[in-house]
Amino acid sequence: FYLNVIVRMAHTGTHSQPVRACLLLVVVSVWVQQVDGVWPLPQQLDQSADRNSLSPQRFSFTYGRDSAAQTGCSVLDAAFKRYFSIIFPDFTKGSAMLTTLYSCFVVADNLSVSEGQAVLRSVTVWGALRGLESFSQLVYQDDYGSYFINKTEIVDFPRFAFRGLLLDTSRHYLPLHAILKTLDAMAYSKFNVFHWHIVDDPSFPYQSRTFPDLSNKGAFHPFTHVYTQSDVMRVIEHARMRGIRVIPEFDSPGHTQSWGKGQPNLLTPCYKGDVPSGSFGPVDPTVDTTYKFMESLLKEVKFVFPDSYVHLGGDEVSFACWQSNPNVRTFMEKMGFGKDFTKLESFYMERTSIVWQDVFDYHERIPQDTVLEIWKGETYQAELSRMTKAGHRVLLSAPWYINHISYGQDWRNSYAVQPQNFSGTEEQKKLVIGGEVAMWGEYVDATNLNPRLWPRACAAAERLWSDEEKTLNADLAFPRLEKFRCELLRRGIQAEPLFVGHCKHEYDGL
Amino acid sequence: FYLNVIVRMAHTGTHSQPVRACLLLVVVSVWVQQVDGVWPLPQQLDQSADRNSLSPQRFSFTYGRDSAAQTGCSVLDAAFKRYFSIIFPDFTKGSAMLTTLYSCFVVADNLSVSEGQAVLRSVTVWGALRGLESFSQLVYQDDYGSYFINKTEIVDFPRFAFRGLLLDTSRHYLPLHAILKTLDAMAYSKFNVFHWHIVDDPSFPYQSRTFPDLSNKGAFHPFTHVYTQSDVMRVIEHARMRGIRVIPEFDSPGHTQSWGKGQPNLLTPCYKGDVPSGSFGPVDPTVDTTYKFMESLLKEVKFVFPDSYVHLGGDEVSFACWQSNPNVRTFMEKMGFGKDFTKLESFYMERTSIVWQDVFDYHERIPQDTVLEIWKGETYQAELSRMTKAGHRVLLSAPWYINHISYGQDWRNSYAVQPQNFSGTEEQKKLVIGGEVAMWGEYVDATNLNPRLWPRACAAAERLWSDEEKTLNADLAFPRLEKFRCELLRRGIQAEPLFVGHCKHEYDGL
Questions:
Q1: Residue A39: which domain range?
Q2: What is the band of B302 on the pLDDT scale with cuts at 50, 70, 90?
Q3: Where is the Glycoside hydrolase family 20 catalytic domain (chains A, B) (predicted)?
Q4: Looking at the structure, do residues B341 and B445 belong to the same domain, yes or no?
Q5: Is residue A201 part of a domain?
Q6: What pLDDT was estimated at residue A355?
Q7: Are residues A377 and A473 in the same domain?
Q8: Could you tell me which chain A residue has the CA closest to the CA of B223?
Q9: Where would I find the H helices in A103-190?
Q10: Does residue A316 carry a catalytic annotation?
């Protein structure tokens, strides 16, 4: 079936009158620069210099007659409303006019803008969302405030199916609105997976129904620094409406110090000689209670987060504490693991899920359908070869740890990444299902999240969406990214500058 | 004469009642951590564990009877009001109570907090402002919201007289409120000079009365990206009330591309062979009209900015364009400069002012009272030796170019700077009058200014204020800086985190 969105644009003919009138007041260039920038770059984009006027009063999004989706399709109904506000911000402040303006008719993977009408065809509602985003980026204003769009033909689809962004809400708590804002900006860059690294050593902000003590005792504060069930639902719904999946990560058996505060006997007591030292190591994999607890917690998590994937971490497990503990050593002997603690970790990790690369690096048996995520920067190409040779699907994150800031235009490093440039067969290359931008939280909270994320994350967004051959040159991409960054400001995203200059709509109501 | 500020603190005796009541509801630690943190660290600080309750209702700032300043001293009257709001934020939202609460009496460089009363003595109103800041940092709240201050004796004075911060409003325009907010945060860290690098190559946002075309044609936008006379006055007054001088920089003869747009014939036309290339170089120092223009502009600038110093730049002058121009070459011959273009620059720069180090590095004669500012990072210690040997007062900025970000706790680099650690006599060391944190604008605008500045600039603030012997260890400073950063958040400054953790009052209303 097809979805089909028709955009009705009143064609106002010539517009020489207002221009002439304004010329009496100020002398400004009448010529409007053609906006040929869509970020990330569509697979095919043909634009002519012919431009059409857009009248906000006569503009509407409607479902096509032959469209499988019609009014009542909540994702698109809401998207029509949202994109009207994005395209015409001046017409939506304090006005209820909008709901009557658009009428929901048609829906139907291409976008065709011609005189008086634009038609968007898509096989899925999610594709229609991406098309609406592209459409919104094609509209521009001249110096007099009039809206225009050029005659345009776009055929588009993503290069990779998995285009993720990781936020870490354990090292610093991020308020709900910061997460929602990030989802907004993700949609503008066509990201489609929010990897929520929700808990870790420093704090456990997820308020569990089954184990409320985890956040009561493990969060930075039991009331102000937690995500309630309702918060989580809001995040998932906000993301869904924008075509974004939410994959939660409950990293274990390492990175679980905060879990131990609310769940006694979960972590391995470390020993100094023959006596417990008072500190704790990773989850204790030798006792049944651990597995019962993990089963209950994950049952809840899989219910609360409807996505088919849960990220189970498995990275950076320190073996020193396990080794110090006599019970663990006894268990190792019993299981015939000898002194190989990677076997113990493997024993613990055997699940179907996304896991960090460590699980592959150190373990013998991993189910074929486990997706592996590469995070170690130095050797990621070799890792891509090895993992795909073993038949695993992989996600590339190592070169996109953008919490690692540096002075200047470091987006160019992200842009230069070539995810399929490793030695392997064509079949192996296909096993790269996408990648993930990671914003780890050691030095990031609500004060600096947005300017660190945007527009730096946009570089990876284009690499994951667009044709690599058409987007190899960062210098060519630069002016388009500058424009897109100004567009992010106009939409209220606190995106930092790429270099010297200015935007018409600066941040913070200038 | 002496200024004397008395702080009346109602002593409410024991407060066991509310504590006991609350214990029925929640079990939280009753013990309040002693807050021995003042940033930057005072020269002498003695604190006891004895704490006094503070009642916002009974609290007032008053001038001492023997104080030379009394009610009507606008700087202190306003500071009393401001610091009441800072200390007791809950008592000032939407309430007019404040104006009746404090009565202005006394004023008198020490701060003594004891039971029921705190006395602040200072020789100048500016010292009193610094004392009020220290006082405000001594007050803390327990988990029940009650306010406390410990019995404390402070004797304090700054190590260096010049503690500056540079903002660049040419590479990106900074809206007025961003500048005002920066001044607020500067006062919290006891900075006392705002170095306003107001114009440069990319744009000329200063709206001149004498030469309006400079901003009309040289600003990014003639209305939205300019500083009007009234804007400039607001900045100066906002700064003055907080004990901060405003030193404007009109950098020339280089860094003047934007000037050329509104002032024809000011810049040197560059030549390609025998014909002008169409591009322009530095200010043309060979024609009288240049000096007439500069005289008029600087006359206005010195009137608008009351500070006794104007920074005249003088850095990074490219000689290639001068060399290409036949008129300049003729002038050089006439003046007997030969082929030494540094002599031409010297000819241009002979003024009493602060200038960048280049003017010293390349020129023969500089007036003894010109203050030199060091910006080149690699060689700053050698430069300190040479400049002070020549008898010049110097400002150190090179190691504090904090626009150069890097991953992690880079404030430690700023903190490790020892401005007087260079080979030279004691007399030479005294010629180091201070330093300046520089936030150049290539990659900075209103979206990321605050989290890049704060708390990173605080490291230099302490180095410039405090006893170096007592503040050598960054690890010891760390928890105090973390507390101060939380205090900045509480005061509405978007200061980024130093490391994993949280604040009671997070940014943005958490």
A1: 3-11+35-156
A2: confident
A3: 160-467
A4: yes
A5: yes
A6: 65
A7: yes
A8: A510
A9: 125-138, 176-188
A10: yes
Sign of the CA dihedral B101, B105, B108, B113?
A: negative
A224 touches chain B (CB under 8 A): yes
What pLDDT shows up at residue B14? 36
ipTM reported for the complex, 2 dp = 0.87
Nearest to B83 by CA among B475, B487, B392: B487
Q: Note whether A393 and A410 are same-domain residues.
A: yes
Q: What is the CATH number of the domain that holds A392?
A: 3.20.20.80
Q: What is the pLDDT of residues B174-192, one digit of tens each?
A: 999 999 999 999 999 999 9
B445:A496 CB<8 A: yes
Mean pLDDT of B427-431: 97
For B21-56, the DSSP string reads: HHHTT-----PPPP----SSPPSEEEEEEEEEEE-G
Does residue B298 lie in a domain region?
Answer: yes
Q: Which of A156, A171, A197 is the last residue of a domain?
A: A156
Do B242 and B286 have their domain in common?
Answer: yes
Closest CB to B445 among A202, A224, A497: A497
Cβ of A508 within 8 Å of Cβ of B445? The answer is no
- pLDDT above 80: residue A136: yes
* Amino acid B30: pLDDT: 32
| Residues near B262 by beta carbon (within 8 Å), at least 6 away in sequence | B204, B211, B212, B213, B214, B215, B216, B217, B218
Could you tell me the pTM of the whole model?
Answer: 0.89
Of the residues B201, B255, B410, B445, the best mutation for testing chain A's interface (the one with the most A CB atoms within 10 Å of its CB) is B445
Give yes or no for residue B506 having a pLDDT over 80: yes
One domain for residues A204 and A311? yes
A39, two tokens: 């970020």
**For the segment A451-473, what is each residue's pLDDT rounded down to a tens digit?**
999 999 999 999 999 999 999 99
User: Is the same domain home to A356 and A416?
Assistant: yes
pLDDT score recorded for residue B306: 86
Instruction: Please tell me which residue, B118 or B488, carries the higher pLDDT value.
Output: B488
- Banded pLDDT at B433 (limits 50, 70, 90): very high
Place B4 in a pLDDT band, splitting at 50, 70 and 90: low
Lowest mean pLDDT among A35-44, A149-158, B13-22, B151-160: B13-22
Cβ of residue A119 closer than 8 Å to a chain B Cβ: no
Instruction: Please tell me the distance from the alpha carbon of residue A434 to that of residue A247, in angstroms, as a whole number.
Output: 14
Assigned token pair, B446: 């209103």
Verify that A39 and A184 share a domain, yes or no.
no
Residue B26 distance to chain A (closest CA, Å): 11
- Kindly report the three-state secondary structure assignment for every residue of B255-268: CCHHHHHHCCCCEE
Residue of A295, A316, A350, A506 marked catalytic: A316
Reported as a single tens digit per residue, the pLDDT across A57-90 is 888 899 988 888 889 999 999 999 999 999 998 7
Which candidate from A202, A446, A496 shows the least CB-CB separation from B447?
A496
SS3 of B135, please? helix
Q: Which helix (H) or strand (E) holds B288?
A: helix B288-304
Tell me how crowded residue B15 is: count the other CB atoms within 10 A of its CB. Answer: 13
- State the Cα–Cα distance between residues A426 and A428, nearest whole angstrom: 5
By DSSP bridging, strand A162-168 and strand A147-155 are unpaired
Residue A500 located in a structural domain: no
pLDDT band with cut points at 50, 70 and 90 for residue B17: very low
Are A212 and A357 found together in one domain?
yes
Q: Closest Cα partner for A202 from A7, A440, A479, A463?
A: A440
